[in-house]
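Incident log, support desk, overnight shift.

02:14 A customer reports that sequence design results differ from what the structure should imply. Their input is reproduced verbatim below. On-call engineer (initials T.W.) acknowledged and began investigating.
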């Protein structure tokens, strides 16, 4: 059962953030506040095409800041992309980084920042609290609602030499400012809205499940779960609704604050293994795994925490004292199907022969440490099998 001693210490780290329509227009003013005259703007081709990169660069130009644009960033960004970005930063004498985009550009931007201040290869900073020198100023303008890299202590980079995703976790990775503008979300295609929105849900559920959770992270996590269940379907139905997009931006922010401080669990560890080995989309992997991971984890929750989780998901509960774990995983299953995420691991191209290595990789992931129930490798294989 998940219990917490009243004597255990907890902390909570968050960046400055501005939340609201047109927040992107503050990029120039906030970056100028750091005294930067030249900045590296990290984005990707899709976000450029949507026009958000130009909008942020115009704000920087208005503030008298020179920009160098770096867009060699792929989904599941590779270590060499961060290393190349660091070369660009140095070659142009930049003094700060502005990231515009979803999780990939923001994680790549964090990787660039780590390398320019600490030197060496990004891969050597894998793990928890392994970044000795603070990053240069980093301003993030997220254009998806889910990753929350704009407020988190996490940076996920693919080690393309080993086909694994590595996690860097450190207070040093918290951006200086997040400019969260729901208007930038309206250009997301439906599949990205669904995958990133479900990623936010998984962040919140795993933060609530984590053995490092506490009252403040619970507060954020439960509100985020309610928010995703309230606003994700409306975003799918009416992609241009600023009200619905704002609801999801807020849920993503709350989930980000929760998981940044409570960390994650087996779902993310297993999704990282899939993303590294098979280059599969992060949000979708998480969405397919969560219900099965919860079937493994929920028996160690206290009855009261199962009820809290079920209520946040809008499950009608007969008893105020407990809820069937099955009701929670079924609710998740129906929710993801309702927004069109109906795949299984096999339909994404995973084979049974992949499972032992995937499970071994997941067991070594930094996110596994805070899973509320310690699995054996065969448990992880069985969870992958259930999602097959
Ligand atoms: Fe995630």
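02:41 Re-run completed on a clean worker. Output:
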């Amino acid at each position: 059962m998940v219990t917490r001693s009243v004597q255990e210490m907890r902390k909570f780290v968050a960046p400055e953030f501005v939340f609201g329509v047109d927040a992107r227009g503050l990029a120039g003013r906030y970056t100028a506040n750091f005294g930067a005259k030249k900045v590296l703007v990290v984005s990707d081709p899709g976000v450029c095409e949507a026009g958000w990169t130009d909008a942020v660069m115009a704000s920087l130009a208005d503030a008298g800041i020179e920009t160098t644009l770096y867009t060699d960033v792929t989904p599941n960004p590779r270590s060499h992309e961060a290393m190349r970005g660091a070369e660009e930063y140095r070659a142009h004498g930049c003094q700060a980084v502005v990231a515009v985009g979803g999780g990939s550009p923001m994680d790549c931007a964090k990787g660039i920042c780590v390398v320019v201040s600490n030197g060496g290869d990004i891969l050597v900073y894998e793990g928890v609290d392994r970044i000795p020198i603070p990053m240069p100023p980093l301003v993030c303008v997220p254009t998806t609602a889910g990753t929350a890299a704009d407020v988190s202590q996490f940076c996920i980079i693919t080690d393309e030499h080993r086909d694994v995703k590595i996690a860097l976790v450190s207070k040093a990775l918290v951006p200086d400012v997040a400019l969260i503008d729901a208007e930038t979300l309206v250009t997301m295609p439906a599949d990205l809205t669904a995958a990133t929105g479900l990623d936010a849900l998984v962040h919140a559920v795993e933060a609530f499940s984590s053995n490092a959770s506490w009252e403040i992270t619970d507060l954020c996590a439960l509100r985020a779960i309610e928010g995703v269940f309230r606003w994700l379907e409306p975003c799918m139905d009416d992609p241009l609704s600023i009200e619905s997009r704002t609801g999801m931006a807020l849920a993503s922010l709350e989930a980000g604050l929760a998981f940044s401080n409570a960390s994650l669990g087996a779902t993310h560890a297993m999704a990282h293994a899939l993303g590294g080995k098979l280059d599969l989309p992060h949000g979708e992997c998480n969405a397919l795994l969560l219900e099965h991971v919860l079937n493994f984890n929920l028996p160690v929750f206290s009855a009261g925490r199962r009820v809290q989780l079920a209520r946040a998901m809008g499950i009608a509960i007969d008893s105020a004292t407990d809820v069937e774990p099955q009701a929670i995983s079924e609710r998740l299953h129906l929710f993801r199907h309702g927004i069109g995420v109906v795949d299984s691991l096999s339909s994404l191209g995973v084979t049974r022969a992949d499972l032992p290595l995937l499970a071994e990789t997941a067991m070594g992931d930094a996110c596994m440490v805070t899973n509320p129930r310690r699995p054996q490798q065969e448990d992880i294989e069985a969870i992958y099998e259930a999602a097959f």
